Records
---
Amino acid sequence: MTHVTEHPLVRGGRSAALATACVRGGVAAGLGLGALAVLVVAGWISSPYPDSGPGGALHLAAGLWLLAHGVDLVRTDTLSGLPAPLGIVPMLLTVLPVWLVHRAARDTLDAADGGDRRPPSAGAAVGAVAGGYLLVAAAVVVYGESGPLPVEPLSAGLWLPAVVVGAAGAGAWTAFGRPLPEQRQAAAALRAAGLGLATLLGGGAVVAAVSLAWHAGEAQAAYAGLTGEWSGRVAVLLLVLALLPNMAVWGAAYGLGPGFTLGTGAFATPLGLVGDPAAPPFPLLAALPDDGRGGWLHGAAAAVPLAAVLLQGGRVGRSARTWTARDTALTALGAAWGCGAVVALLSAAAGGPLGTARLAAFGPVWWQTGAATVLWGACVGVPMALGVRAWGRRVPRPKRQPASVEAPVAAVRAATAPAGPEAGRVPAAGSVPPSLPPVPSAPEGPEGEKAPPGTPPAAPGGKTAGAKAPVAGLGLDDDPPYGAYDGYDPYGDSAFEPYDYLPAAWEPGAPPPPPAAPSA
């Protein structure tokens, strides 16, 4: 009866959660599109020479929003009248839509876990959020077909779902605590690939910034020559900011070796600039290398991928101290392939066509930069991982005691050595020196009566054991060696162990009282 009663409630709760997730995806799409539309409309209002009405501004906002998802656009209002493709994605614009989808999927699973109803599975939550988002995106695609920037259908069907589903999947992964594969090699490869990718992109940004600072005069002239109005300059500045991540990818591709294309037949690599570049006047393009062969300053860009793969291989090597050499090499190679795949995707987004004819190829070539990243990781990262693993598995040699410590130890061993046939031997470290035979603790007096407590035992010849006797190798007035006190307990403690103390100076107890005079 309980199962029949709760089953409809569970199904209804899960359906409500999926509907809520779908709504969250649609809201995320609307927020991203609205933020970009506000920015474009504000620029259109502030422009003293608007080319079109509010409809044109909204169509431009819709086109830029789709371009931020990797969708190629087609410009119809060209001077020649022929449509020209636009495939370079301003990667900074991608951050907001991706973050909104990521947060929608994460909040869907977090809210379901904290509520009373049964939460949906991760796949269902990702599908619901992505479905709601893509419904809004489909409406935007249809709306943009009537504007000056229609969508290229193939790229819209490929890149738009891939970006949305990937961002939603990352949000679900975050909601579950960012778990890594249970296999140690796979988890180590992912961590190393992330470290190498961050180092490569950061180094590419540094290379691009240094080059831009070196050509600061040309960049300023290009910026001032684009427009003379302050509204136009603000728009150009916003476009420059949106293309800064692209600049980092270009710098990384330049350091990797393949470089990037500047039109059909023109390449910029650390070895030099080949061909006739067809670069339009733009502030960021002023940072391109000069004509001619590259010098040592251009070759210094190779330090970026070198540092990236060294850190990547070192991370694998530190995790592989208990692995075999084969597993270590395969893990480092997997990290290289993972980093190369992400670099290829970023290169495909950072480059693309800007028009027809010579501008049909512009920016990094995705398969070349991806292959170069894998090659760097295989040739440098794998040996680095093996070297770090071998260094971590080394066995340190035992440290020898200095001569200043060995000399007193040898003197003490010689002083405690027994006399006789074994006098020439030196006891080994940790050995116990030989002791004398046990002596009765309560000897009898002259008339057969027991001596008072504390009286030292009598030795052969009428002498007590407490009296000093000549010992081989010592003077008459010297203290006996350490082994001579074995069996003698001056403190009345049965647990006393004379070997726990260094036999440097023995301090005997108080002298025993004199014996009582015999009665007449």
---
Amino acid sequence: MSTQVIIGIIIAIILVAAILYGIGFVMRKKNQDKLHELEKRREALFDLPVLEEVDDVKKMHLVGQSQNTFRDWNQKWTDISTSSFAELESQIFEVESLNETFRFMKAKAAIVDAEDTMNQMETEVEEVRNGLKELRESEERNSLKVQKALDVYEELKQKLRDQGEEYGPAYSELQKQLKNIEIEFTQFVTLNTSGDPVEAREVLEQAEQHTYELEDTMAKIPAVYEELNKTFPDQLKEIQEGYQKLLADHYVFPVENFQGEIDRVKKRVQTSLGDLEKTEVHTVEVASRDTASAIDALYTVMEREINSRGYVFKNRPVVEEYIQHANKNNHQLLIEIDHTSQSYTLNHNELGKVRGFQQEIDELDRQKNVLHPKLDNHEVAYSEAQTFYKDAYKILDDVESQQVEIDNSLRELRQGEQEAQQKVEQYEFRLRNLKRFVEKQRLPGLPGDYLESFFMATDRVEDLSKSLNKIRVNMLEVNQLVKECETDIKGLETKTNDLVDAAALTEQMMQYANRYRHSHPEIKAAIDRSLSLFSKDYKYQAALDEIGQALERVEPGAFKRIESFYFNNRDLV
């Protein structure tokens, strides 16, 4: 082997050794850095004031579930500060040993395990600290809650001592309840000090509940007692005195036993005072609402009778006069119906209705004659008389309204007859004018349907005249005939105008068509047919259609032009 080869091998070995050393140095440095970071995290975790926080919470003398929760967190911290820290120390020592002996890969794996342990410890310590913080804050809230309840208790105690008269018969029971609450707070302190946290918490919760319940009760009692001791008695006294005065003034009450109602309300007030003595506030409140309603009802009865008296004195003579007035009107209306029925047929049971009015008026008069002696002898309540008068007004108003309606309808019969007579004259005049108008046209004859309409209208007017000349005129029949006459004559007038216009236009068309008579055979034929329809059959519209269509075929537009000229110059044609 040559010297150069040997030198090359030595250099290669040196290079490999150098590279391996460099890699080892880098890996050792990385592991050393991670180890240093772990040391810093361990020291930071160890420096946390967890032990002080545990001692702070321990000094709070927790009870019940709070104490159990604290024991759990304390035990967890003890486990972390002993076994977990010891395990971490062991893992860190192992990393240092592996790193120093150049077992870098194992050291790297050991570092990962140590970091996992570190992460878990940090998480658990955070949980412990948060748990202790929540306990501390919760206990502070509970302490404030307990202190608030104690403050309320002291306020209630002071209020009962300073304002005892406001609680009336409930004073003794309230004192007793305050004493029981004091005993509960004392029992809580004793149990908490002696180390019975569960029972202490139960007693405290009862004391707090009873305190706030008593606060609510005491807040309601003064107003309730004011009603029972002052408001209701004053109102009942006023009602009793008013009732006696009204009796002395000869008032009669519709309530069967008004005094008994007053006595029942008084007894209800006494019962409520008994319930208040037992501090049964809800029962008292419900009863007081009923009592207030009962007192309002008593006031209402008295006020209604007082108001009714004035109404009765004012309206008594008015109702008497109204009944007499209605009776007089009904009597006159009966006479008018009898007189009218001799000349007219009455179609709406006017007589039956007026007889019904008389029965209503007679019944009101009978009731009035029964009521007024009782009023004079103080045997009936004014409110009952007021009700009768108001009902009487409604009945009499309705009767009078219908009396006026019937009276107007009777007057309208005469007026309607006069108007119908005038209509007959107008219809006869219009028919005569139509007849003269048609005769003036000197037509060769009149179509049968026109004559039928003319005679039908004439007969209808004749029927109307006969109906008006009957001994007893039926205006329903007359009015119907008037409508039919008007319809017939209007229709006849339209037919007359149409007939005359058709005849005149036919003549105009034939005169104009003569110019084509010799040059257009079809015009000559149309003129002949139209002339036949006009002169022999008296079908003027058919004659117009015949000549008009033929002329329109020869000279388009001629028909419309002649028609337009005719209607624009009808008076000249």
---
Amino acid sequence: MGGLTPLQPGRPWPLGAHWDGQGINFAVFSDHAQGIALCLFDDAGTQQQSCTALPGRTQQVWHGYLPGAQPGLVYGLRAHGPWQPERGQRFNPNKLLLDPYAREIVGRFDWNDPHFGGDRQRPLEMDLRDNGAQALKARVVHDRFDWGGDTPPCTPLADTVLYELHVKGFTRLHPGVPETQRGTYAGLASDAAIAHLQRLGVTAVSLLPVHQALDEERLVRMGLRNYWGYNTVGFFCPSPEFAVAGSSGAAVRDEFRTMVKRLHAAGLEVILDVVYNHSAETDEQGPTIHFRGLDNAAWYRLRPDDPALYVNDTGTGNTLNLGHPRVLQLMMDSLRYWVSEMHIDGFRFDLAPVLGRGATAGGFDTGAAFFHAIAQDPLLSTVKLIAEPWDIGIGGYQLGQFPPGWAEWNDRFRDTVRSFWLRGETSRGELAQRLCASSDVFQARGRMPAESVNFIVAHDGFTLADLVSHDRKHNEANGEGNRDGHDQNHSWNAGVEGPSDDPVIGALRGRLQRALLATLLLSQGTPMLCAGDELGHSQGGNNNAYCQDNATSWIDWSRADDVLVAFTAQVLALRRTHRPLLDRWYSGLADAQGRVDLGWLQADGTPLADADWRDPAQRVLGAAIGAPGPFGEALLMLMNAGDTDVPFALPAGRWRVLLDTAASSPAAPEAGAVAHTPWPLAAHSLVLLAQDLTP
């Protein structure tokens, strides 16, 4: 540190540490601190070399400028103020704090007792031990990256097909990826990985969290990991866990940027799953890492009846206070960073109702400051915004209630489609609504069909193969006595629990998977596939594999079902070329030629009557789409979720078969093949036909 002059007041913006070519400016928010000290460390972050109070304070921001300082400087913060947990404040200058705006994190968190601001046995009493040598620190960075004319694909939402994947699990076992790159950003950007995505025909990868995260203490004690990564500690830091071995610092960020650049060049957008609802500090018995020590009462929502305790709308111990302007500012600054510096194309927001909850009452508000801030932002308003529309707080289920322009994960689609095909409780009326982008949920609020993100499987729950192989979850490996994970899975094991060598059961499970995939990919709305479902990936019945950083979660490419891959690609091609249901709301009214834009048929070819919609015993449904598609032809989609074949009377005219999921091979129907009536609609199958306009 020799040669540096004393700290000067500097300026209160931008927050974090920034090099201007001549020195570094530091700016830190704390409304209630009595002082903030800047502590400088050696390059390894183990030896504190100085600790000096930031000399400037402007409103809620403490700041200082260090002339002559260069990028690479390692630092932490110490906050002085009242230790009064019963009043919501937990300042403890013995604890070194990580800058929430850190672009690079130094060190590895070890869950030792000195990291806790309060005594572990008596949490209301201050712990006086200094944790500076072991605490996480920030390194000042100043990146340069040649994007080389990178151009985002900017795929319209109505044309988007999402593919949810885990960066590590997707390529960790992929034989076509160079061994040193498996499980990394570079692996996802490899020729083999991109070739598979392009073969399928998806348009965007939706990545599980890549922000730097911590493994929870309970998992560490059990020898497990937080594989999914929903426990953020670095809101500006791509996790080095997913970088090529030995990479650090700028190399990690450059590997991430190169991945984005290569995916863009292949026509694929990159969506990030982000966690702005809670932090890794957990509840009142958790460690002091950054927010808790800088200004606990500002950063977190505390219980009004006892400010020593945290509001827990997230199920993780704490809830960030998006009602505070500085907390909102960090989220907005983080989002802009990922778009401007990392060229990200959009975000999926975990537990998104938290973003619309106020600081006090905590009710969800579509007009919350976060939504207004996003809507007026010239950068963020142009990217894809996807909400997980539920949390565990009061009024936490908000499907359809997000602002226009937002897309939302639609669990009603998931549950209804599963129930229809897998012997669950549902009706044809319920199914028809889900096939039409849940118009009962979205249309009345002026939303567009594409804003319904339809999925049957996501990272959280059974895989597609397990969905048709298990009646119950098998989560014993998670160490929670099989109590974790969903119990209402709407699954069916097809007669045998778990793996089966019976060819009849195997054929049935294959047919069910094809019917489920076809329903997802041909429905109105934005479809989302979960990586591995097109390959037959199984997690052995574990429907909550969040802590399984092993072969349970990693996709085993050596056992890939190539026929199912080809089938998935075929259906996606049909979606692109024929667009069975367009991105507009249907009326059911007739046009000048007497054709309805969308009509619903029974097996005898007659329209459904009122009582037919509600009959839970009926599992045969036809959708006649009369509005001209891209080829000026009407379409007919037939579904039979029953156990027996059913003759289905086709409407007048000649019909050409585009898809029949009863076939075990994905080969396209013969050119010019015409369906006869009645059509023998096989059990557990979906058929798509097009009006044959040839003379």
